[in-house]
UniProtKB/TrEMBL annotation:
PANTHER family with a match to the protein in the record: DNA REPAIR PROTEIN RADA, DNA REPAIR PROTEIN RADA-LIKE PROTEIN
Molecular function per GO: ATP binding; ATP-dependent DNA damage sensor activity; damaged DNA binding; hydrolase activity; zinc ion binding
Keyword DNA repair tagged: yes
Domain RecA family profile: 72-219
Gene name, Swiss-Prot/TrEMBL: radA
UniProt name for this protein: DNA repair protein RadA
Family: Belongs to the RecA family. RadA subfamily.
Lineage: Bacteria, Pseudomonadati, Bacteroidota, Chitinophagia, Chitinophagales
Residues the record lists as binding ATP: G101, E102, P103, G104, I105, G106, K107, S108
Organism: Filimonas zeae
Amino acid sequence: MSKIKTAFFCSNCGYESTKWLGKCPSCNQWNTFIEEVLDKGNNKADSNDWKNYTPNPRKSKTIALSHVSSIEEERLVTADAELNRVLGSGIVPGSIVLVAGEPGIGKSTLFLQSALQMPQVVTLYISGEESEQQIKMRADRLGIQNENFYLLTEASTQVIFQEIKKLKPQLVVVDSVQTLHSNFIESSPGSISQIRECAAEFQRFAKETNTPVFLIGHITKDGNIAGPKILEHMVDTVLQFEGDRNYTYRILRTLKNRFGSTAELGIYEMISSGMRPVSNPSEILITHKEDQLSGGAIAATMEGLRPLLIEVQALVTPSVYGTPQRTVSGFDLRRLQLLLAVLEKRGGFQFGLKDVFLNIAGGLKVEDPSTDLAVICALLSSYEDVPVSQHICFAGEVGLNGEIRAVNRVEQRIAEAEKLGFEKIVVSRYNKKGWDSAKGFNIEVVPLGKVEEVYQMLF
Ligand SMILES: [Zn+2]
């Protein structure tokens, strides 16, 4: 009888321990440790796995930095400009990219589509979730033909690597990393030790053969599926695919990138024939209404390095119940409460007796603090039931004393607003340097210092 080997893993960060621990020493979470079987002590070594496959074993030796060639490796440029952008102008050979996102928002569609759009590249698409027929149907819907696209519905990494050896693909997509299973580990697919081992096997494969690998991984809102988080340090690039499944817009965000900036972002619209890259997002995110309604204001935000104009919608109604409700979608609830407190204190508005609903149009989530000013304007507009002109947009952070604070890259925001035909943009007075240099623009830049001044200007 061989001994069964087990270990305890933190389900939050993947920290490994020989004993059960109440609190994770790595991420400080409580009650996250679970036991997993690592090895039953049999079935080893004979399996034909990537561990035994080394086509060109790397000869490690020290080398003077000056002798290292600095020629940048040629990247694989995809047909999708948004994907190229988030990867840092294309796929780096031998890189391993983790794509994380909630189930059902379109990760598979996006990467199936991107792979199909590269007929010059031999691609292997490994699916542990969908059958060949399901993927075929999906590809038919996308309407793209590709003779170099190969499909493998398999979960065992040993079988997968045998197929890879035969096919020698130039690009591998794994959908999803949670379905993979390695014979070296006894625990079930989707467990922490399995995910780590399988990802490590693909990492070795990517580095040794210089083949790029995309690993698709599911996350849930409550984060109770073990997964992508524990792989973040193992991979070269982490992309997060975000969006509300009730809306058509999706954002592909770079969280980590060894080969490029992490401030990048790609925007897609989900249409019946797949994911359509949106090269000019502001035009779509703002709804041009015929008649003006109260409660809406346009914010000139930045998402990464891209200026993005978005619509903030507020609804302020008398509170029926004892405790007023605050409901947000796409905006931070605590931030809204803070802004309401500022309006109550500085402007004497009785928000304590009102229910407040705040929504960022298009299902986007914004983190840029420059949205504050547009939120304040939308709230006041609904409170007073007076519409804000659709030709004005706002870019300013609001401080606790009601002061409008400067924001970064104000010139870019002004330029974007002008491009979209806005007549006025309200910015912070403290952004003087920025709007001084923007004097050549046709748009009127209105520098204001306090929330009260905005109120006087609008109402
Ligand atoms: Zn932990």
